[in-house]
Amino acid sequence: MVEHLVGRIAAAFAPPEAFNIVGIRTRGEALAQRLTQLLASRGYCQIGRGVLDITLYRDDLSEIGPRPMVRPTHLDISIDEKPLLLVDDVLFTGRSVRSALDLLADFGRPSVIRLAVLVDRGGRELPIHADFAGLMLSDVPPDHRVNVRLRETDGKDEISVEPRA
Question: How far apart are CA 98 and CA 132, in angstroms?
Fold first, then answer.
């Protein structure tokens, strides 16, 4: 599935073109790293990497608990006037992506922002769509979760649909 995603991204960006890949913590970060490595093996050599922690930008911060875990955002790259590929594991309501866009605006202005997700499960609450999706799921009940597990964070690659706990 990641290979399919890489193929679609490679068709949209030319190998000599400089662009940035920024992952949303946690699994978006791991997925962005994989995409960067796979694109590098295809001749892409001008890829900047970054990581966003959107915790403080979430509109449901009060629901997370009194002491949410905030990890650092790493954007030691120039994002101004360069294309940026924003990466996350699952796209559902669009609220995480909106939070990421708000955070990115604090760091600069990319020439264009494209969104890549491993799974698009539908159910948007905001007018946000993925430019690149590895898997489209259109029949996930609203009371279910799509769980993505990645080797880097969970020890195995797996996508499952489960009832919310």
Answer: 17
The CATH class, in words, for 2-163 is: alpha beta
In sequence order, what are the beta bridge partners of 21?
A: 49, 85
Q: What is the rounded distance in angstroms from the CA atom of residue 35 to the CA atom of residue 12?
A: 14
Is pTM beyond 0.90? Reply is yes
Q: Taking the domains of the chain in order of start, what are their residue ranges?
A: 2-163
Query: Quick check: bond before 26 cis, omega within 30?
Result: yes
Question: CA angle, 23 as apex, 91 and 80 as ends, to 5°?
Answer: 115
Contact 52, 84 (CB under 8 A): no
pLDDT digits (tens, 9 = 90+) for 71-118: 889 999 999 999 999 999 999 999 999 999 999 999 999 999 999 999
Q: How far apart are CA 162 and CA 55, in angstroms?
A: 24
* Residue 152, SS3 per DSSP: helix
The C-alpha atoms of residue 145 and residue 126 are separated, in whole angstroms, by: 18
Rounded Cα gap, residues 47 and 114, in angstroms = 14
